[in-house]
Amino acid sequence: MKAKINTIKTDMYKVFVLGNADNVQLAKAYFLLAIPLLTVFFAFGHFKY
């Protein structure tokens, strides 16, 4: 579990700080950010329908 957390931290650092990540690291970073963000949008969003 500790190795997975370190991998995620390294991927986030390469994507957002260094900017030299490969496609797999980009996908992991954006999925990890998109899932909680979409959850908040759907939980607190107001729909017009």
Automatic annotation (TrEMBL):
Keywords: Membrane, Transmembrane, Transmembrane helix. The chain crosses the membrane at residues 29-47. This is Uncharacterized protein. It comes from Mucilaginibacter dorajii.
